[in-house]
Specification:
The protein has 22 helices and 13 strands. The protein is of the alpha/beta class. Helix 5 crosses helix 7, helix 13 packs antiparallel against helix 22 and helix 16 packs across helix 19. This is Amidase family protein.
């Protein structure tokens, strides 16, 4: 009898499961639309670099991303969402934590708040930014566990501030439970474990909310193609002007998602400008750290010489917190440093005194950019000592060869060490080129001239070492001439204007919202310092943020 009952139970459970799966399949949250009309309608208003051929991905079905958590998201009522908004929207991590400690907010509600926004805007084809391309299906359960631990007194007495905070990751950063595609169809089934920095985030209690779009292969695939485009994720759009302003790249999704308040913070990566540019274009705070401060293990590479991950946030306080939560020596990364750099976590709480700062300003930018000029004058009036300078004319010959040869060598190593051959059928740049050519209309609508250039580059290993040494020397000369002779704390730039020099010098750079052009396009002030001066840059950035509060939420994404 027991055996019969057991069989009946199994049959019933199986039937229920089939019914649930059937119901799940019937849910349609999003339908593709004819975006060619939208592309044509805006063709006369876009700059040449933004001549989009398509908006939607031809590969990604948003229902697969959004259906699994739909039942959870619908549990948050509109009334409760609006009640939560003042505690979360545009608030820094310490403020959010304070509301949790006072039991006005739970970790579950924090997660559902951001999911609510993502579903509201990303499933509407008139507001979608094409930015969120994967979600952690366990995120709500993980948040509930933290609430239960807190209720039962099991949560750590000393918590890193990142504990319980929902974080989005650029989709070239390995993350268990979600594919890591680098935006390429060739990697769409790339199942991996956690990157070193993701493991550190989880150890510190962060909740990984999902993955965001990027410029495919970190914008090292096609020449002149729109930033923010990937064959896997489609065209990322800027919330300050969809189809009007560039998103910046290659960490496009990290920038647009945080500008739209889809998470507490995001992680991007940079080789040359890929954090600074999208942070500037989306009016958020972005930090490109010194090479070696953060591990690169488990991140799809361009260049082991120049690559680094970095934090992208709405404010300087959160930037320091996120950076701190990713720190740690990685024996597998030859550039990773063992030395501790104190003061990073608390940097956002201790702004520098503007009157004690000595900052270098480019004479040419003062002459040609009115907002930069006004900002420099405002800093002077606030007490900062500004030294105008003209940098030495240094050569950047061979920069592209660093990217070419490093990518040719580093990508196969990544694929060998992290990808599963039964899931990923490419093992080299040549393999990817061949794979893309098999269906060029879908896989490479803008071509792959940069990948082809990688194969064509004949630079020898000896010549490459010479190029790297010369560029590092020239990059440092570009900044150090003024910094050393005038005893400067930092050099002030705009957006990613001097990102290439900072990249080869291996210097950190912090960009902070500076204002908006008459068109509404964001523009940012960038602080560039010497190696491992992140804490100092953050303290200076916080002083600027406090004295010149300029960040505005993008219209249409504030409700």
């Amino acid at each position: 009898m027991k055996k019969i009952l057991g069989i009946i139970t199994i049959v019933l459970l199986s039937a229920c499961k089939e019914k649930q799966n059937s119901m799940k399949e019937e849910i349609v949250l999003w339908s593709p639309y004819n975006d060619s009309v939208e592309v044509a309608a805006h063709a006369d208003h876009e700059i040449e670099r933004m001549q989009y051929k398509l908006i939607q991905s031809k590969i990604l079905d948003k229902n697969e991303v959004f259906v699994p958590l739909y039942s959870e998201v619908t549990k948050l009522s509109e009334e409760r969402y609006h009640a939560l908004a003042p505690m979360i929207l545009e608030q820094n991590i310490f403020t959010i934590r304070d509301h949790i400690e006072k039991e006005a907010l739970t970790y579950e509600e924090l997660v559902l708040f951001f999911l609510h926004r993502i579903y509201k805007y990303e499933l509407n084809n008139t507001t979608t930014l094409n930015t969120v391309i994967a979600l952690n299906a366990q995120i709500v359960d993980q948040a509930r566990e933290l609430d239960e631990d807190r209720k039962m007194g099991r949560s750590p007495k000393i918590k890193h501030p990142i504990y319980g905070m929902p974080i989005l990751l650029k989709d070239n950063i390995n993350t268990a439970g979600m594919k890591t595609t680098a935006g390429s169809i060739a990697l769409m089934d790339n199942e991996v474990g956690d990157a070193f920095i993701v493991s550190n985030l989880k150890k510190n209690g962060a909740l990984i909310l999902g993955k965001v779009n990027l410029s495919e292969w970190a914008y090292f695939l096609c020449s002149g193609c729109p930033v923010g485009y990937s064959a896997y994720g489609g065209q990322t759009l800027n919330p300050y002007g969809r189809r009007i302003f560039e998103t910046g790249g290659s960490s496009s999704g990290s920038g647009t998602s945080i500008a739209a308040n889809y998470a507490v913070a995001a992680v991007g990566t940079e080789t040359s400008g890929s954090i600074l540019s999208p942070s500037s274009q989306n009016s958020i705070v972005g930090l490109k750290p010194t090479i070696g401060l953060l591990s690169r293990t488990g991140i799809v590479p361009i260049s082991s010489t120049l690559d680094t991950p970095g934090p992208m946030t709405k404010n300087v306080v959160d930037n320091a917190i996120l950076l701190s939560a990713m720190l740690g020596h990685d024996a597998q990364d030859s550039a990773s440093v063992e030395k501790d750099f104190p003061g990073i976590l608390s940097a956002g709480l201790h702004p520098e005194n503007l009157g004690e700062m000595r900052l270098g300003a480019f004479a040419e930018l003062i002459k040609t950019d009115s907002m930069y000029r006004t900002t420099i004058e405002n800093l002077k009036r606030a007490g900062a000592q500004i030294v105008e300078f003209t940098p030495p004319d240094v050569k950047m010959d061979g920069f592209l060869s660093i990217l070419n040869i490093d990518m040719r060598n580093d990508l196969p190593k990544y694929l060998k060490n992290h990808s599963r051959p039964e899931k990923v059928k490419v093992g080299s740049v040549e393999d990817v080129i061949h794979f893309n050519n098999l269906d060029s209309n879908v896989r490479i609508p803008y071509g792959q001239s940069l990948f082809e250039g990688i194969i064509a580059d004949t630079t020898s290993n000896e010549k490459l070492l010479e190029i790297k040494a010369n560029l590092e020397k020239n990059g440092r000369l570009f900044f150090d001439t003024a910094m050393d002779s005038h005893n400067l704390d930092a050099i002030l730039s705009i957006n990613n204007y001097h990102a290439g020099y900072a990249a080869v010098a291996k210097y950190p750079a912090l960009t902070v919202p500076m204002g908006y052009k008459p068109t509404g396009e964001p523009i940012s002030l960038t602080f560039i310092g010497k190696q491992f001066s992140e804490a100092h840059l953050l303290r200076m950035g916080k002083a600027f943020e406090n004295n010149f509060k300029v960040r505005l939420m993008p219209k249409g994404y504030g409700e």
